[in-house]
Every structure is written in structure tokens, then in C-alpha cells.
Amino acid sequence: MSEAGDSNPQPGNTNKPKAGDRRRARALAMQGLYQRHFSKTPISDIEAEFMVDNDMSKVDIMYFRDILRGVHREQAELDSLVEPFLDRPMKEVDAVELAIVRLGAYELKYRIDVPYKVVINEGVEMAKRFGGTEGHKFVNSILDKLSRRLRLAETRPR
């Protein structure tokens, strides 16, 4: 199954990652960010641990590294982008949902090669899989509002 922006490779072209490879990269990066939230382990150690402890054969490794490192590096800015849309203080946001929202915010701001609808959909799916019962609604709301701010040209009705 293919997503816009996360297309499957053409025959003979092994350079383009498959949609599932990016989906797995996002899930692992989110788990790494979740771990970092509680452990304060250096992000490079978390990255190395995930590379050793997981089957990375069907993971877009470059994407995993980019979003894991990028979210960590830009966390303060990402938090300031997300905070106006929160219905509670940042410290009260569930750690899984916070990791997903930060990851989505990073993709919306820095990975304009990924369509905003893909970012939102992937965030919602991760929240359904890893988050609380209603967490996907929270993630959807935040990423939808943020996409209208960061991707105005892309989200504007035509």
C-alpha cells in the first residue's frame, strides 16, 4: 500500500523507500523520543540502541535518524509551535501523545516533502496503536491546526 509522498520504488530503483519503511521509521523514532522523555539518555545512545535491538531491514534508516535527531534538536521550537493548540499544560500531555505530536510538528515544519495529510494520518495511526483510548483525537486536532499554520498554501481550500 502506497501513500502520497511515501511512494514505493519504481522497478529497478532501490533508492526510494517504501511507505511501510517510513511508517516503521516513524514508529521507532516515536518510541525513541518516548524513551528519551523518561530516561534522559543521550539521543545518540538511543539511536544506537534501536539500531542494534530492532530489525532495521524494512526501516527507512535515513528517515529514522533524521526525525529522531531532528525532533530532539528542535524540541524547544516544536514545543513553542504546539503549545498554543494545547488544552492543558505541556507537562500534563501523555508522553506517547507528546512524542507523536512533536514528531508530526517536525515533519510539518522541516519535511515539506511529506504531504501534510500523510503527517496527520501517520500521527493518528500511531496514536491509535500506541496511545490512550482517545489519544488519536488529540493528536489529530493538534496536527490539523498546526498544519494550517505551517502549510498554509498546501491546506488552503482550492
Task: Set down the secondary structure blueprint.
Layout: H1 19-39, H2 43-53, H3 61-73, H4 75-82, H5 95-110, H6 116-130, H7 135-150, H8 152-155
Task: Give an overview of the whole structure.
With 158 residues, the chain is an all-alpha fold. It is built from eight helices and no strands. The protein starts with 18 loop residues before the first helix and ends with a helix.
Short description:
This protein has 158 residues and is mainly α. It has helices at residues 19-39, 43-53, 61-73, 75-82, 95-110, 116-130, 135-150, 152-155.
How do the helices and strands follow one another from N- to C-terminus?
HHHHHHHH
Q: Do you know the CATH architecture?
A: Orthogonal Bundle
Biggest beta-sheet profile: none
Q: Into which percent range does the helicity of residues fall?
A: 55-70%
Strand content: under 5%
**First-last Cα distance:** 27 Å
What is the name of the CATH superfamily?
A: NusB-like
| Assembly state (oligomeric) | single chain
Query: What would the principal axes of the Cα set say about the shape?
Result: globular
Radius of gyration: 15 Å
Low-confidence stretches: 1-13
Number of domains: 1
